TrEMBL record:
PROSITE patterns for this protein: TONB_DEPENDENT_REC_3
Descriptive protein name: TonB-dependent receptor
TonB-dependent receptor plug domain ranges (all copies): 65-175
Coiled-coil annotated spans: none
GO cellular component, as recorded: cell outer membrane
Pfam families for the chain: Plug, TonB_dep_Rec_b-barrel
Subcellular location: Cell outer membrane
Amino acid sequence: MRGFLLGSACAAALTGAISPAIAQDNAPQPSQTVEDRAPQTAADDQPESEDREIIVTATRREERLQDVPLSITAFQQRELTEKGIVGFEGIARETPGVVLNRPTQNFNNFTSRGIATNGYNANLQSSVAVYIDELPVSTIGNTTVVDPNLFDVERVEFLRGPQGTLFGSGSLSGAMRILTKSPDLDEVDVSALVDLGLTGSDSIRQRYNLMLNVPIVADSLALRTVGFYRHEEGYLDNVGTGVHNSNTLVDFGGRAILLWAPTSRLSIRLLGSYEDSDPKDSSLTSPSLGREKRISDQPDRFTGKQTILNGTLEYEFDFARLTSSSTYSDFDQRFWIDLAGTFPAGSFPGAPIAFGLDANAYDKVFVQETRLASSLDGPFQFVVGGFYLHRRRDVDYFYRSSPEFLAARNLTGLPDQYYQKQFTHQISEELAGFGELTYRFSDQFWLTGGLRYGRTSAQGFTEEGGYLATAFGQNYFTYARLGIPVKFNTFTPYAATEGVKASGKKPSWKLSATFKPSEALTTYATFSTGFRAPIVNAFAGRPSLVDPTDIIIPFGATSDDLKSYEIGAKGRWLDGRVSVNAAAFLIDWSNIQAQANRVSDSVQFATNIGAARSKGLELEANFIPADGFNVGLNAAFVDAQITELSPEEAAISGAVPDHRLSAPKFQGSIYASYSFDLTADTKGMLAASLQHVGAYNSSFPNTPGKPSLPLSTFGRTDAYENVNLSFGVRKGAWSGQLYVENVFDDHSITYIHPEAFLVSRFGTMRPRTVGIRIGYGI
């Protein structure tokens, strides 16, 4: 009945008075680079072939992307809307050489150009930096990161290859920037988007977005506000908790931006945003239980509440633009997870046992960046600036049993279900200076050099309090595993301790040469370097409570080192009807930071191993064979594997020589659209897309500490194709679209969790979803 009602609503909306749509004269192409698309508005009626340029800020200064010696893919708001891209997953599928390892909502780890040892990266700094305006929101792999709402953005840019000179140590293999739209000082503006869908037979998707722009003082002061709400019912049944469609998502929030431009030289932009993302359970499945099934004794929760406050001042001198951006972020997250897979049934008498972690984390981050970008037309152009980041992360670790298990085993004496509580915090800082200098020998040839030199540090602290519950000197695991009833009568408190401070100083370099033989073609060669900050393992030196003979957690990992060599070309011909961007790269990655897990208790730790090499090709192309018809494609070939490895490194990490890293060898997508006149003032559009992602390894193949033993959790994802179809119409400012996502209801495995403690470890594609989008002013 629910499906019938939704279908009726979709049909009524498309045949009613609002004749909406997603047709446009300039239909977007998948993964187009920015210079291949015009700035789009609701009234954009310019012919598709007209050669128009777009100015981007990927290099921290305004310039044509056609001239930027980088591989950049960008998406504007209309393309995001028409393709139904609301988060990181859609961005990754449309960007060559990039995959998103997504165990569940709010867990997003990008892999770019093959630089990943697994898809989870526990305890490791992310290899792709993610920015919301000036705020870096990516941190370490096993940390909740809110998948931000992408309504009313100026654009999303994905920069591939190391971006350390301008975006810091977290951009080892790339950077993704989400740029919010500033207020319009002159006109009142309204836009809205409603998306209603049905996944499977009874899972309803609801997405609501609204923007209002109001000038307050003509030409000098304006306010832009955005509000959004998502309620997307899940599609998995948790057989452990008995909840149908357990992985439901509720996400809401908004932002307000005030822009004041008292003079033609000065502007001040104030932003405040809030997002509350609350998945009710994980989206990881257990295929052995049947399709769309998962199991945990309690819901796995990965929630996030993020508040961002930013003030940005810009002043135009005669020779340069000064930008000063100050950002404060408050991020509260839950990381609640069932760890019962650590002790599966049959592994010992009395198994399985209840075992879980409820971790609550609280981040407070301050970021200050000040930079000066030249604006003169002479041969010299420069960007110079400074960056400072201070992050305090408090994490409360609560290790739990369950009330049912404690009662069944007659284990008493605990004040609640937690047998161990520990309160910690970590202070991390980054201070850096950076600059880029370009010298133009002529309009056809120029050189750019960049340098960033900075200091990073991180230090962990255990706070006084908490406890470890024992009875007669033995911990919870002893009695739970042996099935011995007991009353816990000793609660040993944790003393305040100060961890070793990890710090490092290291430069990042970039040098590029750009040759533009004609207005239609730009070629470049770039050398750049990258690294990640050193890591101290949270439980360094601690033996296993389960098996004291297992390996001792090592101190941590020093900075890794990456060198990238890239050549590329960007071309546009026939008034923009044909555009091709291509790049070839070779990356040497040494002293690799890698994740491993102790076998007996699955405790995560970071270590260093030898070296790897990644080499590949990337292609983006768009063709307009006739008015109204667009074909776009992108493709990437990546060959990334271990090249150096000592026996000691193999033993502690589980790696083997010549092992392929965790990235597909081939991926690509193709998009085709045809727009046509329905009436004199109404456009129609048919569109189809096909995305292919090849299979790749989930982790290293052997067991840390036991290098001759294959890792029980090792596997390969499925190679898969995702097909989407849509039909839309547009009349004036109104638009509407009927769509089908995952047309063939593909259930391929897109992610395999590398750690044994999860029983449900597999990420799959969302089942077939049909729906309607209705928009205004987009």
